[in-house]
Structure formats: C-alpha cells, structure tokens
Amino acid sequence: MTSLIFNHGAWHSPECWSKVIPAFKQRGYRCFAPQLDFCGTEQPVDSLASTIHQIQTLIAQETTLGNDVVLINHSFGGSVGCSSVKGFTQKDPSRLTPNSGKVIGIIQLCAFMPQSGLSLYDMVDITKVFHHSEPDGWEGIHQDPVALFYNDMSPEDARYWKDCLLKHSTAAFKDSVNVYPGWADVPTSFIFCLRDGAIPLQIQEAMVEAAKGAGASITTRSLDTGHSPFFSKPEETTSVISESLKSLESK
Fold this sequence. Notes:
Layout: E1 3-7, H1 21-26, E2 30-32, H2 49-64, E3 69-74, H3 77-84, E4 103-109, H4 120-123, E5 131-133, E6 139-141, H5 145-149, H6 155-163, H7 170-174, E7 188-193, H8 201-213, E8 218-223, H9 229-232, H10 234-249
Parallel strand pairs: 1-2, 1-3, 3-4, 4-7, 7-8
Antiparallel strand pairs: 5-6
C-alpha cells in the first residue's frame, strides 16, 4: 500500500487535512501530516533545510519499509514537498536502500512548483504579493486573510480558520539554495483551485505550463473553490485527490 505524506502551506497547520485524511486511512493508506517547521515555531527558521529534512525523514522511513510514497502538497507546501523527493525516485534513487519503495508521484493542490535556484520571492512579482518581511524574521500578511484563503466559506468558518493562522518564517520564502524541482522526477498531478484568492488561477496555470515546457509529466484537475478546499469542500477535495492518486498508482 502506498504511504501518503500531506504537506500544509504557509501560516497553516496539519489541521488543514483533518477532514481529508480519514477517508484514506479507512482505505488502508499510511498517512502522515507533519507540522512543518517553517511556521508555528517559537523562532523563525533560517532556511528550508530543516523543513525539507522533516519530510525526507518520513520518506526514508516509509521507503525503507518497502512502501511507495505519494506527496500531497498544498500551496507553499509544494515548494518543500517537491524539494524533498530528491534522491528518492526511480529517476534518482541515490538516497534509496536496496529493495526499498520509492516516491512514485506528487499531487499539487494549488501548490507552488519550485524551480532550481529560485526562491519563492524570485518566482513572484514582489509588488503584488499579499505578504511582507518583518524585522523579526516573520512574514506578515497585509491583506484580508479571509479574502485570500477562505473566500468560499461561511463568515463564521472563515473567522475561525483566520484565528488559527500561525507565524511564518520569512527565510522560507527567500531560500533559493535548498529548493529542487521534484515535479520533474516523478509523474505529477496538479489540482487547480478556480477561485483561489491567494494564488490566482493564472499563476497556477503559468506554473504548470512552465513545468510542462521543461518536460514534466503533469496531469491536471480542477476544483471550483477558493484556496482552502479541504475546509470548504472536503468531500470534493478528497474525491479529486483520490482520482489523482489512482492515476499515479497505475503508472
């Protein structure tokens, strides 16, 4: 059975996946949703290295057991999730042990597609982003989080999740050294969120087209949701992830 690693995005926690993971556990999948240390810590991190190490530790644990692995990444979780597969794939098995499993695919839920040598800040128009660097090492948000992340939810639910947001490390957005385009090494499924207020659809599409242009094997699906479909439409989100997973497992 394939092991699944669910990676949340910036300012968020593994609770994002709380309405999605149970369905996969019921089907027998081993599921992991770590609290990634680029946010929610007492002090900001100084790079993505420790976050990538967190995910690679889980990948190594599961592949050593003989299990194949699929990563499901949301938003900025795509940057670290994709970067973590280096050396754990059929294309590059340099970190795998004999007779082990391997990473067989990536599912990107409106998630960033990292490029070698480019930080997140390098990939975006800095004059148009909704966040900014603070002197204390944290990344501030200067637009309404509800409009950005929760624009398709009830006011009550949106306020609840807004109040759950965590501090996020600025250095994670500025690290260009540790990023790796893992989507180039394994089949990848990208799920567009059509009403995303944080990563507009045209940016999602541009990232996918750039990856395809680089030779990546990418299939696409869509959800008519905002940035956080696991909150607003968890059953539909589970269904489209399931479809993507079946496709990856059959390759």
